[in-house]
Amino acid sequence: MLITCPYCGPRDLAEFTYQGDANRARPDPASTDQAAWNVYTYDRVNTLGDHAEYWQHSGGCRAHLKMVRSTLTHAISSVEFVRPHPGHKPSSRRKPGAAP
Amino acid sequence: MAEYSVFSLLRNAFSAQPDWKPAWRKPDPKPEYDVVIVGGGGHGLSTAYYLAKEHGITNVAVVERGWLGQGNIGRNTTMIRSNYLLPQNQHFYEHSVKLWENLSHDLNYNVMFSQRGCLNLANSPSQLDDFARRGNAMRHVGIDAELMSVEQIKAFLPALDINFGGRFPVYGGLMQRRAGTARHDAVAWGYARGADRRGVDMLENCEVTGFLRDGDRIVGVRTTRGEIRAKKVAVAVAGHTGQLMKMAGINRLPIESHVLQAFVSEGLKPFMDTVVTFGAGHLYVTQSDKGGMVFGGDIDGYNTYAQRGNLPIVEDVMSELAAMFPGLARVRLLRSWGGIMDMSMDGSPIITTGPLPGMYLNTGWCYGGFKATPASGWCFAWTIARDEPHPYNAAFTLDRFHRGLVIDEKGQGSTPRLH
Amino acid sequence: MSPRRTNAPGRVDRARSIRFSFDGKIFAGHPGDTLASALMANGVTLFGRSFKYHRPRGVLTAGVDEPNALVTLIRGDVREPNLPATQVEIYEGLEAVSQNRFPSLSFDVGAVNQLGGKLLGAGFYYKTFMGPVIGPLKGTRFWMFCEHFIRRAAGLGRAGTAKDTARYERMNAFCDVLVVGSGPAGLKAAREAAGDGGRVILLEMDPLFGGSARWSGGRIEGTDAAHWVEETVSGLRELPNVRLLSRTAAWGYYDGNTIAATERVADHKREAAKGEPRQRHWVIRAKKVVLATGAFERPIVFAGNDRPGVMLASAAARYASDFSVLPGERIAVFANNDSAYANAALLREAGATIVAIVDMRAAISEDARRLASECGGELLTGHAVVATEGGKGLTGFKVQKFDAATGSLTGDPRVISADLLAVSGGWSPAIHLASQAGAGKAEWDATLQAFLPPKPAQDWTAVGTAAGDFSGGHGLDVAPAPVFEIRAGGKAFVDFQHDVTADDVRLAHREGFVSVEHLKRYTTLGMATDQGKTSNVPGLAIMAEALGKPIPEVGTTRFRAPFSPVSIGAIGAERIGDLRPDRLTPMHDWHVGQGAKMYPAGLWHRPAIYGAPGETVEQAYIRETKATRSAAGIVDVSTLGKIMVQGPDAAEFLDRVYTNLFSTLPINKARYGLMLREDGFAYDDGTTWRLAEHDFLMTTTTANAGKVMQNLEYFLDVYWPDMKVTLTSVTDEWAGASIAGPRARDILASVVAGTAVDNETLPFMGIVRGEVAGVPVMICRLSFSGELAYEVYSGAGHGQQVWDALIEAGQPFGLVPYGLEALGTMRIEKGHVTGAEIDGRTTARDLYLDWMLSKKKPFVGSAMMDREGLVDENRIRLVGLVSLDGRPLNGGAHLVEHNDPTALRDSIGHITAVCFSPSLGKYIGLALVKGGKKRHGTRAYVSDPLRGRFGPVEIVSHHMFDPEGKRMHG
Amino acid sequence: MAEQLSPLGAAWKPGRHNVTGAAPGVVLTETRPGSIVQVAAWPGDEKAVIDAIRAVAGLKLPDGAGGGIATEHKAAFGFAPGKFMVVTQVEGIEAELLKAIPITVGTVTGLSHGRTALRVSGPKAEWVLAKLYAIDFALPAFPLHAGRSTMHHDVFTQIQRTGADQFDLYVFRSFARSFWTTLCHAAEEVGYEVR
Fold this sequence. Notes:
Chain B is α/β, with parallel strands linked by helices. Chain B is 29% helix and 26% strand. In chain B, strands 1, 2, 8, 9, 10, 11, 17 and 18 form an eight-stranded mixed beta sheet that branches. Chain B has an eight-stranded mixed beta sheet with strand order 5-6-4-13-14-15-12-16. In chain B, helix 2 (42-55) packs parallel to helix 7 and helix 2 (42-55) packs across helix 10. The radius of gyration of chain B is 21 Å and the shape is globular. Chain C is 21% helix and 30% strand. Chain C is built from 23 helices and 53 strands. In chain C, helix 8 (366-375) links the parallel strand 21 and strand 22. The model of chain D has no long low-confidence stretch (mean pLDDT 96). Chains C and D meet through strand 9, strand 41 and helix 20 of C and strand 7, helix 3 and helix 4 of D.
């Protein structure tokens, strides 16, 4: 699998760590709503199809990414930084034709 | 239906095999059953078998969307053991091993359970302490376990590099002699045939598309072969639990579906005669009766329903296997495949009544589903028949997570990829 | 069958000779030969024995699809089993042996299995060997007894136990277009892609590029095909944007257009050059993939079709034209399509006599008829082969009139004498990689009677015969008569290697194993090393016929990686012999130089003891501990995880992740902190030092450093993205030496410049900066050992100088270096917890660390830590233990209340850590037991059946030594 | 101040190894810079940090992910969102950057001891590095002076291209010796010189 890190470009799966389901809302830290904490901690939607999830580019820039990826085909339809980086500009991409 | 024995085999061999009939019937669905079991995998089939055998409930259908045993029962690395740390798992898995020990006779079907042992190698002193804790815990509930010294291991596994290339020396190992392997497909076929002989209907190519409800209560299933009503509906669909339960309106469960890859090498003359695991990485390997080295490692580690893994795990597993058995570097990988694991939030299974009235749930098998097959069906059948769990599966509830009564063998918390 | 070398042109260089051995006999071959071609050139026709029945087998194919001719290569002590002789290039001194036979290939006692043939039909294992239900062989015993022999009879080659000394390497590559296969379709695709200016990689399994176009004749783009190949390949070689890789098999198609391929770099050499890998594992990420993987010819299922001398027609022609080996003198052809006629012509051209062409079809094309008459020999249309004759080699075969529409045989069988039967049952496109790549199913083509690639789910296209386009070759119609089997009685093989016969397929049908996966699993059809390349479609066809359904309704199996078997070493690549990197502290060489015994700790290596000659581990750690408690000791703590937490929100961040408060920590002070997981269980502990208003240095346990860092990054990025905090791993920036003991302060005072280290300047948990040996250091007074102790941090590059200076300064004070064992001893005496107690299942309360749970703020885990399962009174909790029988305790031993060594029951907990306490003069330990503190002062028994130990212990407080902490505060 | 000791120890074996032709395929060096400093900007403050690096080190970083600049004695490159590595031959640049970058703008973290700088140069540099890292080393994909963060199994690495066939690698110090051995091993095929 290749994941296109918004900072580093397309990179091999081996450089990434799955950080889990992004369809979960962490309750307010001060919340004492035990049910909400339980759901957040243990219960998963386990989507078949396009799944929102977190990945860390742990073997690269170490940014956490929020992706939408199909759990059927592994096709990735979107990748973005979880933590906004307003100053970020993608690097210039490779031109074709260079020696392999 | 002919009883299987060496005599019937001989008689048929010299008379053009006339007695061999289908191992199970291919009936049409009846409009209603006492119990409908969704999922014709190992656990669904064993549940049907024990419902009939132990509880006399034979008006049962096993509903399978494809062909029997197409899921993880035919995709695993065939290992069987009860070398668990936590008492809840120990009692359950030991019950399973005991059922395994008599399964071929029970089913009149040779499932080839071979008690060649399971050896966990400790690659650090602290790991050896952990294994001692586990082995002693096993001994205190009546399960066999022994520690093997480095010298014993060397003699037992001459092909092993006892120092793993000098990087991870072996400090000893935890051995369960009664552990072993079985022929995975035969387990599915044996249970199917055994249940069929007791009157259970195997409904293949019958995909569940929804549940029939009476208020909150589940009263049957809607399938591609029509509606089937049932007094009780039991779900044992492993990696597809989440999808099925969504049809019943349950949108979140303490389950994630992950892919686990498994591998087999080309056939070899006997190379080793046990199951062995590598403590400093994650590798388990055995040799099949056909001679292939059968092995696996970690799950790929992300949610998926695709029975297709990726390359990094393949590379990890091969490097660990070659580190363990350097002579295997020149042996060739024959085939790889993937199965969808229902990874629970504590690494332990769920066998319970509910979550809706009229429904029963069996899931969360993580890496451990194959070895559990007999006990899973046995306990699930009990739970379905009596509407309450057997003491063996009393702890495997759905609410244990919220209550903090987790059964966390690895101590990793609610991160399924780490279990 | 009497093959011989010819003078036909081809790849074999007859000017040079190569000597090799097969089963101990020396043969000569030439560069360009495979083991199969070289042996055949020497008249060898028997190559192996089949898996189950041990039937004699020859060569069926000329390529990767070979099911029969498997050999083991031997290089010194290293064995490489199960290689198809058709894939092995010979080299000087090559040593090959045949497999699965005893005592020899020509006389194999295992062949007795043929007599039990019907008994050993599909599924026979499942029906027998259950053994008696009572008596000594009940349970699994009888089966295991039988299994012992079955295992010895099964298997193919024998693996070695010697370490493979070869080198394997991984190579990463990127390209715009990857072309797999270098037949005309692949070459054209590569040429076109190169012309577009993109980076192109072309893979070819064979040593030579060009596929069958090199030898099969015909014309491409108006020129002779072989010449066209030569021109095109040399044109591609000149282009800077094209990489050509021969001997490279693409075997796995993974997500993201990632292709795994294995290059056989040195397998064809007597010895690899220095630094050269035997095989290179290519991982290629391509924007687009062109699959020009060609097609496999299929055998026909008929009685005796496995006899040596029955060969695929294309293989026979290739041996004749490409390898200059005529596989037979008197050759007959048996076909259901036109392609075999072209191959017959090639065989005739190479000098064979074509005695007959047997075609199942009543009517054949004009082209075929013309080729047949050129070949001479009899043309028997509307006929089929019903049996073969000969012993270990073909001498002839029987034919009968055959109606392809009904499958019926009429008339009397007639014998035709021949030494080679070249068969063609049609062609199957090599859709393996396409099938691996996609989510879709292969599509059945009724004309070709074959599966075509599925719809692409990734960016690839299939071209040429792989896509079912056979127009580019000799131009003959390869569409076969839809006949896969001639039913005339006798063993007719579908899967040659696994000895699966047509009757086995029908037995599976009768027993209800009718879905394709059941068929495969029940009969083992297609599960052999050739992965069903020759058997897949015929097997399906026979099942389809039995079911009365069309083939596509029986289905095809999805192909899985690898396409053809790949060395485990190649995929493990450079990690073979170097599984994980070593992590070394700056003082590593010093420890080793001092004779320290090193333990692995994750990837780190840490000193366990610095044993003097003749000293046991226990003697050494007792000595080290005593010296530390009485004078001073020094230990390398560089492995502790260290994370810089910096920024305006750093203090607030720490308050959220730790259970206790850090925002109140003064600058130049440190504090012990505890982290929980989200689920409320204990996670990790360590001290965090406030170096400046916005700068904190967090330490973690050695084992959890990476996990904790990742967890902190997760919280920062995902839940608190607005916090201004930078997290940086500085584990490797700092060397750490912990100096402990009553003389520690004196030692520091004698060596540290630029700061005082007295109690006032450097109180407990205080931090000062100074210099040691001219090197800047940071000193924090904190203690894991319970002694007056200091952690001295310096830049890692200066770690050794500082260590040396401390050692030297310590000499007059009796300073000793100590290792993990003494470190463990002192922490056990003090009751400090580590990973053995914080094992992911314990809570802060279990460890009596609940005093650290702040009630003033929420923190990670605070909402979940009070659930019923976590506060249960029956949980196991931390205690100390003292051995009452004066014997050592063992980690992992359990504790019971009863005093009965034989009653293995009712464990109340287990021991987490043990040592001999020099301070107490007793064997002590830490344990987690039900009830915890409530048991202080009571007696229990260690029960350690694994190590045969049972004996009384007293349960005490885990603070076993200096509970008031006078020493460390002194 | 005392000299920093190399972590490579006895694994450092100067001279030519398996060089068959006139020149080695690659030259391997430990460059031992005086300062390796990580500078991180708060989201939105990248420009201020880039300006500070220019003011202090005289290095003008181009915009864009992984952008870098290198001269003979110093270099800087981006390796993560808002994060930059500044490397100079002279010691003490950390203190100057600290002065120039207030906590309201970002953070400065000294890594002069924690990272080991290794240089791979020569005609086969791309080939040898491609054995270890799953990134595209071709010049158009990895332009001159650009930076990359990647890993070789467990060894996290930052790489800057400092020449057409020259790459500077920054690895964690504790892994340096093991990694160096791996690097030499990978270079053996093409012949290498350690200097």
